[in-house]
Amino acid sequence: MAGFLFRRLLNYVVLIVVATSLAYMLAAGALNPRANYEGRNPPIPPAVVDARLTELNLNDKTPLFERYLTWAGGVAHGDFGTMVTGGPVNEDLARRLGVTLRLITIGLVLGSVTGVLVGAYAAVRQYGAFDRVSTGASFFVLAIPTVVLANMLIIAAVWVNGLLPQPIVYVSGEFSAGSTGGFWAQAVDRVQHLILPTISLSLGLIAVYSRYQRNMMLDVLGADFIRTAMAKGLRRRTALIKHALRTALIPAVTYFAFTFGALLVGTTFTEKIFGWHGMGEQLVNSIYTNDVNSVAAISCFAAFAVLVASLASDVLHAVLDPRVRVG
Amino acid sequence: MSDPVLEVTGLDVTFGSGPGAVHAVRGVGYALRPGEVLGIVGESGSGKSVTSLAVMGLLPPHARVTGSVRLKGQEILGASEKRLTAFRGKTISMVFQDPLSALTPVYRVGDQIAEAVRIHQDVSGQAADRRAVELLDLVGIPNPAQRARAFPHEFSGGMRQRAVIAMAIANDPDVIICDEPTTALDVTIQAQVLEVLKTAQRETGAAIVMITHDLGVVAGFVDRVLVMYAGRPVETGSVDDVYYRPRMPYTIGLLGSVPRLDLGGRRRLVPIEGNPPSPDALPPGCPFAPRCPLVVPACDAAEPPLEPVGPGDRRAACIRAGEIEEGRIPPGEVYARSGAGRAGRPAAPGAGAGERRPPVPRGERGVVLEVDGLIRHYPLMKGAVFKRRVGTVYAVDGIGFDIREGETLGLVGESGCGKTTTLMEILELARPQRGTVTVLGRDTAAMTSRERLAVRRDMQVVFQDPLASLDPRMTVHDILAEPLRTHGVRDPGPRVRELLTLVGLDRQHAARYPQDFSGGQRQRIGIARALALEPRLIVLDEPVSALDVSIQAGVINLLEDLKDRLGLSYLFVAHDLSVVRHIADRIAVMYLGRIAEIGQVDRVYDTPMHPYTQALLSAIPLPDPEKERSRVRILLEGDLPSPAAPPSGCRFRTRCPKFRDVLSDGERERCVDEEPAVRVLDEDQGAACHYAEKIKVV
User: H or E element: which one contains B371?
Assistant: First the structure.
């Protein structure tokens, strides 16, 4: 098993290098940082622009491959370069990573656990009222783009806040600027900010997971081993939880690890709409500001996250399912 | 007589409601006394499995169950879940059909058995684990302490079924319900598992309900039999009464349609006409009336109740059972009345072995198919990017046989022995890895594609699954016309109609789709398609194993008639040795990619020489209670070794009873070192064994 994981890891390192290099080349070839300095009034002297671009390793007069080598040299030492605004990419991303992690960890855990429970229960009560309602609701949510869903949530929250003497959920930002008070007051404030984006993120996940889990559970429910378990004298409930759900959970858990990786940079809309300064938001911003270094760094991170997640999902699968354990 | 431990009365099961309701079980009743073994037999769809699930209270919630199920005097039908769970696994337990899916894949086998112990007994986890190991030992799992730590997928089918039995007897139950416990297993494994069930019964003294479609399994195992048809019991009585003195025409038909391993010569099978009724569209009156040769107008008036017939505890649901009992209608003649002269069927030949054989001796007839030294190895690869070979699966490892004109060769063996691979190699008509395949005098290795097409015309195939082998979007006409058009017949219409008549179907059926037909009719369509081009050799891959016995008999008869009329040769691949004895002239027994024994069918069945053939034949249960009770089985130990790592020398030696018990150490050495080749030891009978000797086992 250890040897298998090591080989996997080695493959992944190669994949990350390839993916990131391609991402850098693409970004450096397509984006035009020079445009940031053009059309200013008063115009900036070209020599100054060139000097600034060279300093940032973004000068399109330097051959692409040479810029790539400079960049790759930095990355090898753990330095992703400088943003167009001047600060180091590393620091900016580290801060944003914290923001994104908080959002997606809570959203994903909430979404997948609820989704799995909803799906499993719907399967047990197949074609019952709960199954029909949850199926309808899932398809409804899946059919709505995140943008619309998030804005609907904001409208609803504003309406609810209006009914109450004091707002209970905030619709924008991570925390209230200039809020004072002790640790608890701060924490409550952050939670109030967290509620809406988390709901918006998890609703979609609940929809996906419940559909997924319902199918998995239905497959397992027809299996003979559930009957065996009940024939042993287990109550239906126990048999369903201990034998059916445990077996049907395997694909969902591996899928969980995978979503986690994909979401790290995939919450763009949610972050943008709720004013959270996370990785997803930065990806859009950096493309907009022709910030090649940030785009490349985020792509590198995305590749890393996806591959680590898929490794994690393989490991989890092996832990949960004795049938796939190697050697 | 002691009180019944399980008493079922008037059990009715309905799925759904309103006009679409399916009445799956109608008025089943039986009483099971302590230690008694009751066999419930019936074809698929007769409601036998639903009955047992209803007794256990394991039917899905949308099934409506009425009637009464009394376990040790207490009514358990409709009891609360709490009361039911107290009974299930403790007083009444169950063994299911499919051992592959009966164990939860993610838990260790030992833990699953220990779970059964801990539900009903207040013992520590360690004590339960110890008990699980004891139970595994009891059901004959080698190294039980170690194997208890294994996961279900590391067990073979037979071992899993043993584990399920261990679970069923964990709490010393009073009743064990076995639902087709051996259907999914190979015969030698079936014999082992039946032996384990007998041990289990001895240990626990439990009464057993044995549900099966195999009349042989029931014969030697049970005390009483209940025959079910269309959701109802139609005959019940002691096993000897039902087998030797059946009174219900359905039972008579069922017994007549089973191919017998123990009867040499050609006894023509007696199929039951028609198909079992669908439970949502039962005919009025007796459900068997449409298929019954004894039908009289009164049969359609009302469904006959299960009434006592003759002396003893025997009942039959037939208004003419009394006439059969009194001897006015001898059971043997019930089906003789309807046998001949039905429209659209090939007339029954005069039967009699002498007439059927072509008079020309075997040596002078032309060779249709010759296989010599055929080898098919599959590489075992490992690694994703850089694949490397880590081993070889010796699927077919040097086999040879020939088929002469007008002859049927039965190729038999357990699953994994390489019979399907052999068949595919022959059908491919390409150069084999090693060895030669000669079809109709032409070597496949040297064929041009034009020759290959020509040979395909003369060699056709019929597959096992009749539904999967017919395109559901083509009408029967299109299916039958396709091979004709491929080979350039302009107007296939007349030939299609001819073919339908030939296989006993209506000409009007040509416009229908495969799903409109029953299993037996579909297989007839498959046979008609194979016959379309007037081939000389037909390869049949388990052509009747997916069919119920009463239907199977009709298809076997059809195959025999066709062979006689059209002068065909068959390569008949099957795992059911009774069917093969019935249809084949010669037989080749395969074991682990090699031929163990080959020869004329009656010689091999009457006096098998190879220890594997002997074990195989002795493992097959006969539908004859007295013979079955007096038989001594040669039980094989363990499972088939992996074809990737066959034992050195003789491949069978790891399981060979002769190697284990009879041979001296010196003699054994030869088995280990030297692989035996097939030696012809008698006129047309050869065996691949250094110490072959004839034994009578059937």
Answer: strand B367-382
pTM score, two decimals?
A: 0.82
SS3 assignment for B146-211: HHCCCCHHHCCHHHHHHHHHHHHCCCCCCEEEEECCCCCCCHHHHHHHHHHHHHHHHHHCCEEEEE
Does B38 score more than 90 pLDDT? yes
CA of A125 to nearest chain B CA: how many angstroms apart?
10
Quickly count: other Cβ atoms within 10 Å of residue B400's Cβ. Answer: 16
- What A72-78 contacts at long range (C-beta under 8 Å, 24+ apart), as own/partner pairs, is A72/A21, A72/A24, A75/A20, A75/A300
Question: Pairing relation of β-strands B175-179 and B207-212?
Answer: parallel
Backbone angles phi, psi at B348, to 5 degrees: -65, 130
Q: Are A134 and A226 in contact (CB under 8 A)?
A: no
Q: Which tokens in the block code for residue B244?
A: 């030797």
**Inter-chain residue contact B86 with A233, CB threshold 8 Å:** yes
Question: What does the mean pLDDT of chain A come to?
Answer: 86
**Which residue in B91, B106, B169 has the most chain A C-beta atoms within 10 A of its own C-beta, making it the best mutation to test that interface?**
B106
- Amino acid at the residue B671: C
Rounded to a whole number of angstroms, the distance from the CA of B106 to the nearest CA of chain A is 6
Cβ–Cβ < 8 Å for A248, A286 = no
Other residues' Cβ atoms within 10 Å of the Cβ of residue A164:
9
CB contact under 8 A, B81 and A231: no
Cβ-defined contact of B105 to A225 (cutoff 8 Å) = yes
| pLDDT tens-place string over residues A154-176 | 999 989 888 888 888 888 777 77
Strand spans (E) along B269-342:
307-308, 315-316
Q: Among B87, B106, B116, whose Cβ lies nearest the Cβ of A321?
A: B106
CB contact under 8 A, B88 and A231: yes
B632: how many CB neighbours lie within 10 A of its CB? 7
Q: Touching check for A78 and chain B: CB below 8 Å? A: no
Token pair in block for residue A5: 């994981």
Instruction: With CB atoms and an 8 Å threshold, state whether A320 touches B106.
Output: yes
Rounded to 5 degrees, what angle do the CA atoms A228, A233, A237 make?
85
> Is the complex ipTM more than 0.90?
no
**Residue A249: C-alpha distances to residues A229, A244, B260, B437 (Å):** 17, 8, 49, 50
Write the DSSP string, A84-121.
TTSSBHHHHHHHHHHHHHHHHHHHHHHHHHHHHHHHHH
